[in-house]
Specification:
The chain is α/β, with parallel strands linked by helices. Helix content is 39%, strand content 17%. The chain has 8 helices and 8 strands, in the order βαβαβαβαβαβααββα. Strands 3-2-1-4-5-6-7-8 form an 8-stranded mixed β-sheet, sandwiched between helices. The longest helix is centred in the middle third of the chain and has 25 residues, at 159-183. The two termini are 33 Å apart.
């Protein structure tokens, strides 16, 4: 299946999928394609007006619900309103933004990209029947998890290393979630995917004019489109893959969709467990199976 595309998606009739950040970019394509093949898709978005506009561009059974991953109260409210779900796609994210804090006082990138999704997954886990797919990045290779200063309170803040930390956290979360699912005897699977380098509006919100211009040039010269990037997520959603698989382009940014490798730091079971325990403390959520 090395030439797999979204055209190869099986029917998702009768299944419910939640996609975070589904109002644009990779999330919108992911939601659109799953709705096209019959899934009931819940677009979990911070801006419901943009979510409604995205839903209007889709065919099938789509519903827009508010979810702000940078606010744990919003995460709890969203999760309480879900009766059941087959697949959760943790897609939403911010990238290389200036230093800011979430509602709960977390550094915004680790708070949105990891801790918000961590809490959402744990709160929904008893209602999930199939799998959790979390979108990471090749930038996890530059990431380092500081368990003593996860929220950049005592070290100088740098936007790209903070992004790398959050994307590394996505992979460690996936590995530890799968370990816990296996220990609980659950058939639910945890998987991760990365899009390669796809041109989306994510690159336009760094708050750095020079960085924005470089990103725009990179998008024109190097990037694939959002359909290609979302293909990696859709493959992880639809294919029969082992738990803790990491899916992406075979050649980092381009090439056929395949299971791919991860950095040595992303393979540390000790760090994965420690990060999970710290995340439980910060979000006041726990593995619920």
């Amino acid at each position: 299946m090395s030439d797999w595309t979204a055209a190869d998606l099986p029917s998702f009739a009768g299944r419910t999928v939640i996609v975070t950040g589904a109002n644009s970019g990779l999330g919108e394509v992911t939601a659109r394609e799953l709705a096209r093949v019959g899934a009931k898709v819940i677009l979990a978005v911070r801006n419901t007006a943009k979510g409604d506009a995205a839903a209007a561009r889709m065919t099938g059974d789509v519903e827009v619900r508010k979810l702000d991953l940078a606010d744990l109260a919003s995460v709890r409210e969203f999760a309480a309103g879900v009766d059941g779900v087959d697949v959760l796609v943790n897609n939403a994210g911010i990238m290389a933004v200036p230093y800011a804090l979430t509602v709960d006082g977390f550094e915004s990138q680790i708070g949105t990209n990891h801790l918000g999704h961590f809490a959402l997954t744990n709160l929904l886990l008893p209602k999930i029947t199939d799998r959790v797919v979390t979108v990471s990045s090749t930038m996890h290779w530059i990431g380092y998890i500081s368990l003593r200063d996860l929220n950049w309170k005592s070290r100088p803040y740098f936007a790209w290393p903070a992004y790398g930390q959050s994307k590394l956290a996505n992979l460690l979360f996936t590995s530890e979630l799968q370990r816990r699912l296996d220990a609980a005897g659950s058939s639910v699977r945890a998987l991760a995917a990365h899009p390669g380098y796809s041109a989306t509006n994510l690159q336009g919100h760094t708050g750095n004019p020079i960085g924005a211009r470089l990103s725009a040039a990179g998008n024109r010269l190097l990037a694939t489109d959002a359909d290609y990037g979302a293909r990696q997520t859709l493959y992880a959603v639809a294919q029969d893959l082992p738990g803790d698989s990491f899916v992406g382009p075979r050649f980092a940014m381009r090439g056929p969709t395949a299971r791919v490798g991860r950095s040595p730091l992303a393979r540390s079971a000790k760090t994965a467990t420690a990060l999970w325990e710290l995340s439980e403390q910060l979000t006041d959520t726990k593995f619920a199976l």
